[in-house]
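User: Can you predict the 3D structure for this chain?
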Amino acid sequence: MMMTALDCRERLGIDFAAVHDSYWTHASDIDVMNDSLRQQFVSMYKGPLLERLYTSLKTRYPNLKIQDLPSRGIFDIELVK
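Assistant: Here is the predicted structure, written as structure tokens:
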């Protein structure tokens, strides 16, 4: 949500508001916000998010027993756009 809000303000210059999982903008900007939301979602999940979390937990809590990560699937995150 924060990535979308920043993108809407800084790059697109449109108003953005949100509460929990509800996002709002002016009716004339809905398509633009929708595009930004999808782009930011892909940007966030394209990276090794789970791998970073795993590494962080193993570093912070070396005695914590954590299962190895499952192998990555074949879903193309770009299809979200």
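The two ends are 16 Å apart (CA to CA). Strands lie at 17-19, 22-24.
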